[in-house]
Every structure is written in C-alpha cells, then in structure tokens.
Design brief:
The complex is a heterodimer of chains A (366) and B (323). With 366 residues, chain A is α/β, with parallel strands linked by helices. Chain A folds into three domains: 123 residues, 3-Layer(aba) Sandwich (Rossmann fold); 75 residues; 160 residues, Rossmann fold (3-Layer(aba) Sandwich). Chain A contains 15 helices and eight strands. In chain A, the strands form two sheets. In chain A, strands 2-1-3-4 form a four-stranded parallel β-sheet. In chain A, strand 7, helix 14 and strand 8 form a beta-alpha-beta unit. The longest helix of chain A has 28 residues. Chain A is globular. Chain A starts with a strand and ends with a helix. Chain B is α/β, with parallel strands linked by helices. Chain B is 38% helix and 25% strand. In chain B, helix 3 packs across helix 9 and helix 7 crosses helix 8. In chain B, 46% of the residues are buried. Chains A and B meet through helix 14 and helix 15 of A and helix 3, strand 8 and helix 10 of B.
Chain lengths: 366, 323
C-alpha cells in the first residue's frame, strides 16, 4: 500500500512506522501557502483551520500517489472526529480513489483499532509488529526529548538559527534508523550536536519559560502557528508544548492496566476548571496550564483554530484561571486570514508584560 | 544644553513625533497624517521638531513604536523599538499613575490594557475587523457628510435613543439607512453609532474580563466627545482623557528610550536631525534559498545596506551584522 498521513510536527515517526510495516510511505510536503490555498478551496468555509490544512496536505499526497490515508480520530463533540469521513468524501468527489483508516483511542473502540492494526500489519507476524511498535515508540520518545532540549537552548543560542538547523539535522539522522542499535547511536550523535551549540549565559532570575497549549494541530505544526516556538525562542524564551507525539501515543495506544498515563494526571489537574471531557483538547488545555503553573512557568500562549468550539470554552475560562493563579495567558486564534505582524505585536507585548512583572517581583524580594 | 528624548509612533492613520525632557514634560509634539507614506511623514515630523529644538537641546535618546517601528527605527537610529501596547501603557503609567484600565482606539486598531499598581496584567487587541476603530467613524462621518471633528458634538445633541447594529461596518451602514427612513435625525443616528462602537469594543475586547476604574481613554478617537459620553454611559463611571491623548504611543516610546539608556549607560544611536535628509531606500525581494520563499526586506542608506529582515532562517539578517 502507498500510505500517507497528516503533516503535524515532524512526520518522522509515522513515516518510519509505515515503512517498517512494509508499505510505501508517501509523506505530504511540509504545509506551505500552496497547501493552505488548496485546502481552503476544497473545504467547507465553516470548517476549522486544521481540517482545511490537512485537506490540502492530503490533496498534495494523493497527487504524489498515496492510496491510503492514516489518521487519528477525535473524542467527544469536537468536529475533528468527523473529519476522516469528510476528507474521504471530498477526495472521492474530486475523483480520487483513496481509503481512510481512522485510529480512535484504543480505550474507546478496541475492535476497530484491532481491525485497523490487522490491515496495516499485513503479513508481518505479531511479534514483528510488537518490535516495530516498540522501536517507533522509543524513537518518538527520543525525538521529543531532543526537541525539548533544543526548545530550551534556542532561547540562548549565540548564532540565530543554529538550534533550528540542528533540529533539521537530527530529523534527517533519525530517518536512517531501523534497529535498536542504530537508535542508540543516533541518540549519541544527536546529543553531541546539541552540546556543540554555543549559548550565552543568562542568570536564572532572567530566564523566561513559556508553555504553548491549545488544540493539538495548531500547537504541533509550526507552519500554521507562525512558528510560535521559534519566534518565542528567538525572543529569548524557553518553550514547552502541551502536545508531543510520544505523550499522545502513551495516552492513546500504550496499554496501561495498572497506572495512570502522564496525560491522565494532567487531565485531573484541569478538572478544577472543566470537569468533563467537552471534546477536542479543552480539558487538556486547562490541565496543561495548571501543570505549567505548578512547574513555575512564567506565561502561557494559548493557540486555537478560529471558531474552535472546545477552545472557545477554555478561552472563556481563562479570566478566572488568570485570577486564581496570576499566570498571564495570551490567546491567539489562527486561520488562513491570520496576519503575522499583528500577532507578533501581541507576543512582544505579552513578553514585556511577563518581564516587567518578573523584575517587579524580584525587586520586592531583595 | 538640556537633554531631550524623542518618541516616534508610526501608525496607519497618523505619525506622531514628540520630544520630552528629563522630567517627562512635553516640549514639542507633532501629529501628522501618514497618508500611506510613513517615511515622508516621519521626515516632516523631524524637520518640524528641528525648528523647535535645535540649538536649545541635545537629543539623548530615541524610541520608535507603531506598525512602522522597525523601518523607522533604523532610519532615525532608534535606541528602543517597542510594540505599541507596551508604549501606550508606559505613557499612561507615567501620566495617569492611578489608572487601572486603558481604552485605546486608533485608526485601524483598538486595544484594551489592564493595569495593576503600574504594571500591565493583561491586554487585548481587536482581532477580526475594524468595526470598533477610528476608520469606522471616519467612513460613517463621510457618508453623512459631516466633518469628523464635529462628529462628537452632533452625538451630544441627540434627543432620542436609536440602536444601530455595530458588529460590522457594512451592516451598520444598511441599518443607518433604514433608521434614517424611520425619521431619526442625523444627531440621533450619530449618537447611536457612538454607542454601537462602544458596545462592540467592550464585547469584543473586554470578553468577560472585569473592567476596573479609573478608566483612561486615549488614541485619536478620544478627541470624540460622543464616544467618551457613550463610554461613561455604558460603564457608569468617569472616563479620563489624558492631556496628550493623541500622542501617548510616542510619549511611551520616548520614556522607554530614556529608561533603557539610563539603565545601560550607553550613548544614543540617533543619527541626528539630518536623518530627515538622508537617502533611505527600502526594497524587498523573494529569497529563493529554500521552499519557504521568504520576502526579505532590505534597507539601504546612501547606497549601503543598513539592515535586512523577514527571512526565517536569518541568513540575510546575520549577513548584515557581520559587516
């Protein structure tokens, strides 16, 4: 099978999984203005931004020959759960004969997940599948951990862009990994590259840590969120995202009969603000913010697709959360109409706000 | 000679240039229509300032803000280049220290800034549309055939109340036409518009956040007494308008420049009043180095490259610093 998938953050891990199962991976190109234009043209106007960009990615992938689309489902009332079906119909109406395999959470629909796995597994033995899954999960975990190191270092790099270039290099390196031994080697090499990046010394009191939370697609895919991580890094902030692929796998796929996943603990932290799952990642968003507050972060950037229902709910809870915790939150809605300059002004002002309140606290202590 | 600090705010509608002394007293202020030509309007502002100041004061720092801040900052040699939200709040904190909420309505954007004990705690900017800004009023004034300067006074003369849909400029216009047919006077319609703008502003930017007095209203639209009255009616509180309401952004930039230089102890990078006469050409090109196809802006001063930006990988930005 020629298999494709949405482009969300690094596609390295999905690509590896598909390849190792003996399929041909057709990665869509990194979303560009062309992808967005294409997606907007073929999507309903009221659909949310991720649906449109992913539509564009699929169109580019089927153009390259993809026959099967691999995607995740959604839970709760969020529209994203329906997008697999919608994408399929739109593609079929356009005359593309493609199949869409939707993975829902294993805890929600065990049977369909097993059926999907059987389809992808093909003639591979269950043992081989287990080994592949283990390797890919480890890889996702490694890659995320390396990315976090870069998200910290970028704030202090001496030569602008060196962390981003290292990140590109690491992704290319991991593309060549197929065994556990190679994985360990790649990790060592990547660590060496990261250690080589020259940074400036900044006193602990001047360091600023920002958490990016919100809807998973706009948080994870830099080309649709104005490269928020890089932008913040270049302005001297350490960054963490609410969503990492390895966390998603851990929460949705890894069987965990006795303990709670990291995500699960985070969800409980958000319960003070949203008690039930209202769809999308609204509850996670609140949980992530509380967690970042507990970790001593300085501020939160909350990203959402324009008109995203779950995140609109979390946005309206922000004033209360800000009052409770004193944590500054900046909400930015993104879609194809987003103006860069306007949002950059907001981000800059937001960082000024954080810096001045931080300095003010310091001068009061001393 | 006494020291002065300059602040330049390049906005979509007006370009403001101010000079303050060390006690934050305003020595000169220029309010110039930008007319789509930010470079020319700044040059005019600096020439006017030169007549007021030259020979009497030395310029010890310059700050730039507004949507054209980066370009202008390079042209004049600004010490501080700051976003307009921080600049506006800084000015208010100095001139109206007890303020808790700032309403700032400019030509094409509007902001709300929340303060607590002289620190910004939160802010919001209009996101989707201009139906809460000066351009909206400008356009409606033109349609009704009255000069924008008298718009506010007309509103105050209204005898009856009329509700105008203010969510969108186009729909507001259709609503105005039908209300005119119902027999409402120009004054009443203008008053309805002012109330619609305020309602829209508070819904859009306030978003369920608690607004705490004292309120300060600044930006070009603060000149409109009708809007001020509508704010006071909506909030049931006095809304203060600072003396230099129309140039607060520029004042903030000047104060920020002063503070930054006092802190660092460095000398100003100001190019001198001659900055108004240097040949300054911004150009842009599409970089074909990768698939990002960044639009890179290049600024040349007297034929020499002074700055480049807009590239995502910083290839061009770094190339200037090296030389």
């Amino acid at each position: 099978m020629k298999v494709t998938f949405p482009y969300m953050g690094t596609t390295l891990v999905y690509k590896k999984l598909v390849e190792m199962l003996g399929h041909e991976a057709v990665s869509p190109p990194k979303p560009s203005q062309k992808t967005i234009d294409l997606g907007v043209k073929h999507s309903p106007e009221f659909a949310c931004f991720p649906m449109k960009v992913i539509m564009g990615s699929y169109l580019e992938a089927v153009e390259k020959g993809a026959e099967v689309i691999l995607t995740s489902g959604g839970h709760g009332p969020c529209r994203a759960g329906f997008y697999g079906e919608m994408h399929k119909r739109i593609l079929q109406n356009l005359g593309y004969d493609v199949d869409v395999i939707v993975f829902d959470s294993i805890r929600r629909d065990f049977k369909s997940v097993v059926n999907n796995i059987k389809r992808l597994k093909g003639d591979n033995s269950w043992l081989k599948l287990w080994k592949i899954l283990k390797l890919v999960y480890k890889m996702a975990y490694h890659v995320d951990e390396l990315e976090m190191q870069l998200q910290t270092k970028r704030a202090y790099e001496l030569q602008k862009g060196s962390c981003s270039r290292t990140w590109e290099k690491i992704q290319r390196l991991y593309e060549t990994v197929y065994t556990e031994a190679e994985l360990i080697q790649a990790h060592e090499q990547a660590q060496k590259w990261i250690a080589e990046i020259a940074i400036k010394e900044v006193p602990e009191s001047q360091k600023i840590r920002i958490g990016i939370v919100g809807e998973i697609y706009v948080v994870m895919e830099p080309t649709v969120n104005m490269k928020m991580e890089e932008t913040l890094g270049n302005l001297g902030c350490e960054v963490r995202r609410g969503h990492y692929l390895s966390h998603w796998i851990e929460h949705n796929i890894v069987p965990r009969p006795f303990s709670k996943s990291r995500e699960h603990i985070l969800l409980e932290k958000g319960e003070k603000y949203i008690e039930i799952q209202i769809g999308g990642h609204a509850k996670e968003t609140m949980g992530h913010i509380v967690d970042y507050y507990d970790q001593g972060f300085d501020g939160i950037i909350h990203l959402m697709p324009f008109g995203c229902l779950p995140e609109l709910v979390s946005q309206s809870i922000m004033p209360k959360l800000m009052e409770d915790t004193g944590m500054p939150v900046l909400t930015i809605a993104l879609d194809e109409q987003t103006g860069l300059a306007n949002n950059l002004t907001r981000v800059e002002a937001f960082l000024d706000l954080i810096r001045s309140s931080k300095n003010n606290k310091l001068s009061k202590v001393s | 000679m006494d020291k002065v600090f300059l602040g330049i705010d390049v906005g979509s509608v007006s370009t403001n240039v101010v000079a303050i002394n060390e006690k934050h007293e305003v020595l000169s202020k220029q309010y110039i229509r930008t007319n789509g030509q930010p470079l020319e309007s700044v040059k005019t502002g600096i020439r006017n300032l030169r007549q007021d100041l030259e020979g009497k004061y030395t310029v010890s720092g310059v700050g730039a803000t507004g949507s054209g801040r980066q370009l202008i900052g390079i042209m004049v040699g600004a010490d501080v280049i700051k976003n307009e939200i921080t600049a506006h709040a800084t000015a208010t904190i100095h001139y109206v220290p007890e303020a808790n909420t700032i309403f700032e309505i400019g030509g094409q954007d509007s902001k709300i800034i929340f303060l607590n004990k002289g620190l910004i705690t939160d802010f919001a900017m209009n996101t989707v549309c201009a139906a809460g800004t000066g351009s909206f009023l400008d356009h409606q004034a033109e349609r009704l055939g009255i000069p924008i300067q008298q718009f506010g006074e007309y509103a105050l003369r209204a005898k009856r109340k009329v509700r105008i849909a203010g969510r969108c400029t186009v729909f507001a216009e259709s609503d105005m036409i039908s209300k005119q047919q119902f027999g409402f006077s120009k004054e009443e319609i203008i008053n309805g518009l002012c109330e619609a703008l305020v309602r829209n502003y508070i819904n859009n930017l306030g978003r369920g956040k608690k607004l705490k007095p004292p309120y300060v209203f600044q930006g070009g639209v603060a000149a409109n007494v009708g809007i001020r009255a509508a704010f006071e009616k909506e909030l049931g509180e006095e809304v203060r308008i600072p003396q230099y309401y129309d140039v607060m952004g520029a004042l903030g930039a000047a104060i920020l420049a002063k503070e930054a230089l006092e802190h660092s102890g460095e000398k100003t990078k100001f190019r001198g009043f001659e900055a108004a006469d240097i040949e300054f050409t911004p150009t842009s090109f599409e970089c074909s180095g990768c698939s990002n196809l960044c639009e890179v802006i290049k600024v040349e001063i007297d034929g020499e490259t002074a700055a480049m930006w807009g590239d995502k990988c910083a290839k061009w930005t770094n190339s200037v610093k090296a030389t």
